[in-house]
Design a protein that fits this description.
It is a single chain. The chain has 145 residues and is an alpha+beta fold. It has a domain of 100 residues: Immunoglobulin-like. It has 2 helices and 8 strands. It has a 4-stranded antiparallel sheet, with no helix packed on it. The radius of gyration is 27 Å and the shape is rod-shaped. The chain starts with 11 loop residues before the first helix and ends with a strand. Keywords: Membrane, Transmembrane, Transmembrane helix.
Length: 145
């Protein structure tokens, strides 16, 4: 008597139902993500920015700084403004969301000449400026999307 291979008992209706549910979940996810502006908006595409301020001659005390940074690299949010006094040379790494402005300004406490720079990944100069003696200096750029 010949031995016949047994086929597993597969119900095509169950398979179709599972595939249908997966299709609905996938489509719903895509629609929701697009409704909220896409993956970059939901997850946030961010740039690693380094702000630098130097002075000539060396400053006796701190300079007044104002710069922009994103509070959370994983969320698309407008940048917040940070204001503080700090000694120079000043270097600070921040995160700025794609399409947002990166900006730093510094006001000397005397007749120093201040220079600012904005660097991408600590290397590529995105903006640079040198102020007049005793005057505020500002560097700004908008990050690309």
């Amino acid at each position: 008597m010949p031995v016949h291979a047994q086929r597993p008992n597969v119900c095509p209706m169950k398979t179709l139902v599972v595939l249908g549910v997966l299709a609905v979940i996938g489509t719903t996810t895509v629609v929701l993500v697009n409704q909220f502006g896409g993956w970059n908006t939901l997850m946030g595409k961010a740039w690693a920015i380094t702000y630098e301020v130097t002075t000539e001659p060396a400053a006796d005390g701190p300079v007044q700084l104002r710069y922009l940074e994103n509070p959370d690299r994983y969320k698309k949010q407008p940048p917040k403004v940070v204001t503080k006094a700090a000694p120079v040379p000043f270097t600070h790494e921040v995160v700025v969301n794609a399409g947002e402005k990166a900006e730093i300004s510094a006001t000397p406490n005397g007749d120093q000449v201040l220079t600012c720079r904005i660097l991408l990944d600590g290397e590529k100069v995105l903006a640079s400026a040198t102020g007049a003696r005793g005057q505020k200096v500002t560097c700004e750029t908008t990050t690309s999307r």
